[in-house]
Design goal:
alpha/beta; six-stranded antiparallel beta sheet; globular; binds flavin-adenine dinucleotide
């Protein structure tokens, strides 16, 4: 049995930073990672996908080159994709980031790295391969993985997940993406731009069904303009082998009863990596989906055990996992009282144009019973978008009519993932929207229209 001041399980988005803070505060740390350092975001999530999105955008712009007066000999049909180079570019970005995380942990004198699976033996003891580790503080940062749904026939066909699709070295002839939410939509558009025929199949009546209907319909419009087939309300999905690949049977209200793809990507949600962690031996409570239950300080029901990142179900993003680290470190090391309940939720969907989101949707704001104000603006009325020739999408802000605080916003448009921070930051400070109207934004930007938009606020 080797004793440490702390054990961290999982080198995702919270663990490595926490190790740095704890060791800087003088503690010894045992760090256990079973697979690739950097976790999902670095190896199979944000970093590879955003690298691939950049390649897809380059292809898209090249095909539109003549609109900008740029001449490509042979025209847009001469634009091709070298998928091996596209993949190599993503692999290089991953390798650098993952290697950097591993190096920083291994070079830390106070941190001992175990590259193996970790499993609780009791509330303060963890088995890491042959080693038995003990510590009064244990931090669980084990993340999640793709759900493989129990669709009829799923075990009879080859299918891709967000991990295996990154291994493709050739563009599929026809990619059927099952799941019209954030992960599925990013892959759908990028592979369409790489030259695949793409069909998106979604069980709900519309894609990204958690978003407002106007945003969801605008995203569908973007996809259909690019020739992506979108099949919604597919209530009974079944998979079967087919001479051309895989047949995905649908039970949609409209359209063909099946889609046949050379490849099928399953992107129907994520689940936490908690089933093989021995949580029962430690007495740590999970919910019925396996997410570790935590309080607003990210402490579990067992004193001395915290859960950070996707595995606690309080966030599903890299920035929320990182913020979990910030909360735990501030409370344990800096004597603060930070709470996850104070977090203003924000995220982006990295299709093109991107969707930047913060706070409530309009429908959530309405359901909250507040008197609300709303302003919207199409991207066709945003100068920067017009100048760039990228005018699809819209901006929308929702505020509380009484407190004048912004409740939420969506910017689906060029630069929307960046411009949304103007609103996110104001929401974090707790300022009212009229205060933001006095800002003098830089011209020409997408952000400059935010004060103008706020001037258009109307009761809804
Ligand atoms: C395709 C895709 C695209 C995404 N894009 C974005 C994006 O653009 N922006 C964004 O904010 N988020 C994005 N996400 C989500 C983001 O990747 C996750 O929210 C984030 O990685 C969660 O970090 P984490 O620290 O909770 O866990 P993870 O990053 O999943 O890390 C958990 C680590 O724990 C290890 N582990 C698990 N069990 C054990 C065990 N028993 N013993 C030892 N080690 C263990 C795993 O090997 C892993 O390395 C994306 C996700 C996917 C799948």
């Amino acid at each position: 049995m080797t004793r440490f001041d702390a054990i961290i399980i999982g080198a995702g988005q919270a663990g490595p930073s926490l190790a740095r803070r704890l060791t800087a505060a003088g503690m010894t740390v045992a760090f256990v990672e079973r697979h690739r350092f950097g976790g999902t975001c670095v190896n199979t999530g944000c970093m590879p996908t955003k690298t691939l999105v950049a390649s897809a955008y380059a292809a898209h712009l090249a095909r539109r080159a003549t609109e900008y007066g740029v001449v490509i000999p042979g025209g847009s049909s001469a634009v091709g994709i070298d998928m091996k180079t596209v993949k190599a570019r993503a692999d290089a970005v991953i390798a650098k980031a993952s290697g950097g995380v591993e190096k920083s942990l291994r070079e830390n004198d106070k941190c001992t790295v175990f590259h193996t699976h970790a499993r609780f033996e009791s509330h303060d003891t963890v088995r890491a391969g042959d080693a038995l580790l003990q510590a009064p503080r244990i931090f669980v940062n084990v993340g999640g993985r793709a759900i493989v749904p129990d669709f009829p026939g799923v075990r009879d066909v080859p299918f891709l997940t967000n991990t295996s699709i990154l291994g493709l070295e050739a563009v599929p002839k026809h990619l059927v993406v099952v799941g019209g939410s954030y992960i599925g939509l990013e892959f759908a558009q990028m592979f369409r731009r790489f030259g695949a025929a793409v069909t998106v199949v979604e069980k709900a009546p519309r894609v990204i069904a958690r978003e407002d209907e106007d945003i969801s319909l605008a995203v569908r419009d973007v996809f259909e303009r690019e020739g992506i087939a979108v099949r919604t309300a597919a209530e009974c999905i079944a998979l079967a082998p087919h001479a051309d690949g895989v047949m995905v049977s649908l039970d949609c209200r409209d359209g063909e009863p099946a889609a046949v793809g050379s490849h099928v990507l399953l992107a129907v949600g994520r689940q936490p990596n908690t089933a093989d962690l021995g949580l029962d031996k430690a007495g740590v409570r999970t919910d019925d989906k396996g997410y570790i239950q935590v309080d607003d300080h990210l402490a579990t029901n067992v004193p001395g055990i915290w859960a950070l990142g996707d595995c606690n179900g309080r966030g599903a993003f890299t920035h929320t996992a990182y913020n979990d680290f910030e909360i735990v470190a501030a409370n344990l090391i800096d004597g603060e009282q930070r709470s996850v309940a104070d977090r203003v939720p924000g995220y982006a969907l990295y299709i093109d144009p991107p969707l930047g989101r913060v706070g409530m949707t309009e429908s959530q704001a309405r359901a909250s019973g507040r008197r609300i104000l709303i302003a919207t603006r199409p991207m066709t009325r945003v100068g920067r978008a017009v100048e760039k020739g990228e005018t699809l999408g819209m901006m929308k802000v929702v505020a509380d009519a009484d407190s004048k605080k912004i409740l939420g916003a969506a910017i689906l448009g060029t630069g929307g993932d960046e411009a949304i921070h103007g609103i996110l930051d104001v929401m974090n400070t707790g300022a009212t929207y009229p205060e933001l109207q006095w800002a003098v934004p830089i011209h020409p930007t997408v952000s400059e229209l935010i004060p103008t938009l706020l001037g258009d606020m109307r009761p809804a």
